[in-house]
């Protein structure tokens, strides 16, 4: 391989049987191994969002976990969770997504925080993804951002046991309540 050559989606697809890699800014990178807290937060958020997935028409969503989204020839990350409004994408999607998501959620993994808090944050902001959410299971925190005039602004934050023992409605999912305590691991 040539030094300095940006890799493409075709290079990513040619990786031999390894679905634990993604294409970030022209480099194929290993995705982190998921810990229990990561998988638990992902599962709880999917379960709590299920009413939106089942709803057809206005207010309905397609939400998928571990979904690859092709933003450009040199950038195709695999998001922990991503969602598309059914109003904008009425047909059941399939394959690697090429349609810009309406919402992305990343769950921080130890040693890969920079990718989610900086690389994805800036890339998704630049691409125009309307909503971005970061969950930090270790610090029991959730930060939700919304695009405003091309820049993300903070819409919601919660951290620690005092702030997460509540049920909240967080954009863009104002139609459902999320139990932050369960989402952030406060279960017996």
Automatic annotation (TrEMBL):
Source species, domain of life: Bacteria
Keywords (A to Z) from UniProt: Endonuclease, Hydrolase, Nuclease
Annotated ranges, domain Putative restriction endonuclease: 14-165
Bilayer-crossing regions: none
Listed GO MF terms: endonuclease activity
Xref: SUPFAM superfamilies: Restriction endonuclease-like
A Pfam short name: Uma2
Entry-linked Gene3D superfamilies: tt1808, chain A
Coiled-coil boundaries: none
InterPro entries from the UniProt entry: Nuclease_put_TT1808 (IPR012296), Restrct_endonuc-II-like (IPR011335), Uma2 (IPR008538)
The name this protein goes by in its record: Uma2 family endonuclease
UniProt source species: Thiohalocapsa marina
């Amino acid at each position: 391989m040539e030094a300095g050559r940006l890799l493409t989606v075709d290079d990513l697809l040619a990786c031999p049987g390894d679905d634990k890699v993604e294409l970030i800014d022209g480099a194929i990178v290993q995705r982190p191994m998921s810990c229990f807290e990561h998988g638990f937060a992902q599962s709880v958020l999917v379960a709590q969002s299920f009413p939106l997935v089942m709803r057809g028409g206005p207010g309905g969503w397609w939400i998928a976990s571990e979904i690859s989204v092709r933003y450009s020839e040199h950038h195709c990350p695999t998001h922990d969770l991503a969602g598309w409004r059914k109003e904008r994408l009425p047909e059941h999607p399939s394959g690697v997504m090429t349609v810009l998501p309406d919402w992305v959620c990343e769950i921080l993994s130890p040693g890969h925080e920079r990718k989610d808090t900086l690389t994805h944050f800036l890339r998704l902001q630049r691409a125009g993804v309307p909503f971005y959410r970061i969950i930090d299971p270790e610090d029991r925190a959730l930060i939700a951002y919304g695009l405003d005039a091309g820049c993300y602004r903070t819409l919601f934050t919660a951290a620690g046991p005092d702030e997460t023992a509540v049920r909240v409605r967080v954009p863009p999912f104002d139609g459902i309540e999320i139990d932050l305590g369960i989402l952030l691991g406060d279960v017996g």
